[in-house]
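Note to self: keep these together.
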Amino acid sequence: MMKNRIMLSTITIALLSGCQWDHDEKLQQVVVESRPDSFQAMEVTNPAQELSMTVRHMVTNNDISVECYVPGFEFTKGEGKSQHDKKGYLKISVNHQKPFPVYKAAFVIKDLAKGNHHIRVSLVDTDGEKIDGLEKQFFVQVR
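Structure:
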């Protein structure tokens, strides 16, 4: 009985000593805010075109990260009418200003002033014509 206890104690000490942190590196504490309104996803669809667009955004400091998921759609600068070919790009408008083109599904709107901002994301064909039903608008607050 005593042999079993000594053996069990030896195994326990060996296991515990093998699980120690040997590195001299400092561990960095990471804080994650759980704000349900800071990351949102919205989906719009166009049944006639068999396209759907999900728009997600996240506010970080003065920047807004935007991600658009459009299955089966090719983001391109190409020209020519291609609404039926499922090719085109995004037009982004901030605070009702003139829209600017974005040729990628994910982008960042940088250095916005503090306050509320209106963002409009429109999917357009290669001629810059809006694809019906594939536009999303949302408001963000930069603090």
